[in-house]
């Protein structure tokens, strides 16, 4: 886990055209609450310790405690199938002593929702939660990436709080 908030600037060409773009609603956007409930179940009941939500391309990338060396990718409608979660056995990751508890998992997902939907110019493209190391990852429309421990994430929410895109450029810095 980084001992600091790690911000990485992405592709300069993406940042150069930032204000000429706007978010286009994806399949995951139209079902964001349901997607977040699925992610929460994967992380708290089904043995996933790390899940990345790719909002723009509507996919989940998951790492499970019982097969940690392989990641699994699930796409669009597959995730929204009525019995999607049934393919995973119930499995706790308590033996790994996760740093993010289930209550905080829901809080992170709520913030992801806000960061995805609040602004049409600067918005969350991808968000990840690793319950074991307590790390939150975020990539924004400006191609700026953040890796931040969950405690700092909750302490610094005001950094991401404004809805004015010009004031939210710190996400891209």
Multimer state: single chain
**Residue fraction in strands:** 15-25%
Q: Which residue ranges are poorly predicted, with pLDDT under 50 across at least 5 consecutive positions?
A: 165-169
Counting DSSP H or I runs of 4 or more residues, the number of helices is 6
Morphology call: globular
Give the proportion of residues in helices: 25-40%
How many discrete structural domains? 1
Cα(first) to Cα(last) distance is: 21 Å
Please provide the count of β strands.
Answer: 7
Please state the structural category: alpha+beta
Mean pLDDT: 86
Quick tags:
alpha+beta, 23% strand, 173 residues, globular, 7-stranded antiparallel β-sheet
Could you characterize the architecture of this molecule?
This protein has 173 residues and is of the alpha+beta class. The chain has one domain. It has six helices and seven strands, in the order E-H-H-H-E-E-E-H-H-E-E-E-H. The chain has a seven-stranded antiparallel β-sheet. Helix 3 packs antiparallel against helix 5. About 3% of the residues have low confidence.
């Amino acid at each position: 886990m980084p001992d600091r908030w790690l911000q990485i600037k992405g592709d300069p060409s993406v940042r150069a055209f930032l204000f000429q773009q706007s978010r286009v609603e994806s399949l995951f956007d139209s079902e964001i609450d349901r997607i977040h409930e699925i992610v929460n179940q994967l992380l708290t009941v089904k043995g996933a310790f790390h899940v990345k939500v790719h909002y723009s391309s509507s996919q989940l990338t998951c790492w499970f405690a019982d097969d940690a060396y392989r990641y699994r990718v699930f796409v669009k409608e597959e995730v929204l199938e009525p019995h999607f979660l049934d393919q995973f056995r119930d499995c706790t990751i308590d033996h790994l002593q996760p740093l993010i508890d289930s209550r905080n998992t829901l809080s992170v997902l709520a913030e992801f929702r806000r960061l995805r939907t609040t602004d049409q110019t600067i918005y969350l493209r991808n968000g990840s939660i690793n319950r074991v190391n307590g790390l939150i990852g975020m990539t924004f429309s400006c191609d700026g990436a953040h890796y931040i421990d969950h405690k700092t994430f909750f302490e610094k929410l005001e950094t991401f709080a404004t809805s004015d895109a010009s004031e939210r450029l710190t996400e891209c810095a």
